[in-house]
Predict the structure.
Amino acid sequence: MVSAEKTLTAPTPASNAASASFALLEAKLDYLGSSESIEQIKRAYRFADEAHLGVTRRSGEPYITHPIAVAIQCTEWKLDSQALMAALLHDVMEDCGVTKVDLIEKFGPHVADLVDGLTKLDKLSFETKEEGQVESFRKMLLAMARDVRVILVKLADRTHNMRTMEAMPRTRWKAISSETLEIYAPIAHRLGLNQTYRELQDLAFRYLRPWRYQVLEKAVMKARSRRRDLLQKLQRDVEGAFKNANLAIHIFGREKTLYSIYQKMGQKHLSFAQVTDIYGMRILVPNLIDCYTGLGILHQLYKPVPGKFKDHIAISKVNGYQSLHTTLVGPAGINVEFQLRTDAMHVVAESGVAAHWMYKTSDPVHERAERLGTQWLQSLLDIQDETRDAAEFWDHVKVDLFPDAVYVFTPKSHIMALPRGATVVDFAYAVHTNVGERTLGANVNGQPVSLRSELSNGDVVEIITSPETTPNPAWLGFVKTGRARSKIRHYLKTRAQSESQDLGEKLLTQALRSEGFAQLPASDPTHRSLWDKLLRFTGSKTLTDLLTDIGLGKRVATIVAKRLVKLLADLGERPDPLLLSLERFTSHETLSQGSVVVDGSDNASVQYAQCCHPLPGDAILGYLGHGEGLVVHLDSCQVAQRLKTKDSERFIAVEWSDEPVRSFEASIVVTVLNGKGVLASVASSITSAEADIKLVSMIDEVSGKEATDLRFLIAVQNAAHLQSVLGSLQRLPSVSKASRAFSQRAQA
């Protein structure tokens, strides 16, 4: 986040330049209509002028000229008096020691909230500069979601800072320009502020790549002079054709921005001479039906280029933009793009959500732009509800600042816009969170597809749901929208906490049984002080946090249990001698806690070690990793044995359920004699034994190239099933050896 640069000078009255600047602002306030509103803006100006008294910008101008310039930009969007007051005051909290309370007292809570939303968090303490910057963006975007005027004033602020960047040190050009290009320009585009979007892109490009900017600028100026006669003839021909059709129009040229040209040259590896769509024509017509009539007139006048027609009126862009686009082969064989739209569409195309203030009418075009902008702003609040971490929040938001979209349909023909590359799961979450969380499958255009299938323009998407289905962590690997990503992560975090809490309670109860107490103390008035003392000892805020930490392995149940026993003793409660002797007699020789039963169910707090791939029927033990939950290893796993020598108190006894609920992965190595069809026969033998092949790879070749070692990752029900698969393989004539394999680290 960047504020305008300032330097201190001796306090002096506001200069004539500042007064002249405010006179320019005052001359643009007629649209407000209310003399009271104008007087309030004057009060805000006087307050800001006094607050910034004696401060100048790097250019030497009084600092107050910057807030005035920001407010003047806001008048171009016809923003209300509160927004203009916030524009004049936007730096007083950050730079002049003015508090929000001061602003509430002088200008009311609405103006104070706007200024607060615009204020950076430099005064707070962050671990890193990046963390502070990300937190600033989060605060600004949430304020913007509650009141879009925040981002409009902020974009006006950034635009003026970019216009006056020349006065800043060259060392700051790159950082500020990159931030503008990566954050503020996409936000302007997302909200339909096309004019601001184009200007910010070109200004950032000018300071980020000065040499390239100058070269392209000269090339465009030369091309402009060379094609002036051609464009004038084109305009005369078009005006004549529409006049003959008795259709009044307003036509003007449109030039591609330098940054757009630069991007196209880089993305498509073109020279400047090969970029053919630098110039275009924009035609404004009286009403919607005239857009399509005008399209017919143009296609009769010049031949259209196949595949270069887009109807953004019937299917508007995600930011509310509406227009017909067609590319025609003009005079001298030059391709020229034409855009046809109404005056109302043009206002929305250039000003997006700001059109709400510019034209306070019931025009459906303006209402659609405002609605689409509001939908995106509401999605920011939805993401914030699931994401309290600032960096994660910003990651989600950046995903949604996309320049392009695909348009798909629900089975009831409602159209939905999603980012390019969006999948079936993104669509499901866009419909509703409950639909996303219960997504089982999908049909696209009547055909079943996988959940990771990317959607294309015009697809009709039907989501198949099931009440038993829950979000899968694998979905995070392919979803594209910030909404879907944040909802999935929130669900998984909530589920993991619940499961870890249950495991932690079970582990603490078992550890307490080893100390002679059959169950945890009740949460009643008698034991309230006991639990308070235990929480102070562990540093946990609540009992839920403590149990979750135990389940995640962040705290050791035996240590907490011993402290609990001492606290119980202080209350006069003693262990049960019979239970104590029974537990000690039956406890595992090397493990400090009772056993946990595992069945392979989808549990976020229990994992199965990849180093040894334990199977039902194997001797196993469990390790409470630091923040990983319970990790199940083979009893003979070398990794587990090494951990036990260092961290024995983190091991607990685990045992298999009598009826595991799923299959488990196992790694096997098969040595085969080289020959035709060998791999096919081995694979057939594995599947015939009712095992699934997950992965196959070649390890190495035995000397003489007579045999090859193949490694398979297969899914089996238990250890007995694995032995059956190995026996089936060993009976094949082409197999000389088949055995279970472990990673070198896991071998005993």
About this structure: The chain is about 50% helix and 15% strand. Confidence is low (pLDDT under 50) at residues 1-15, 121-129, 587-594. The domain at 229-352 is CATH 3.30.460.10 (Beta Polymerase; domain 2).
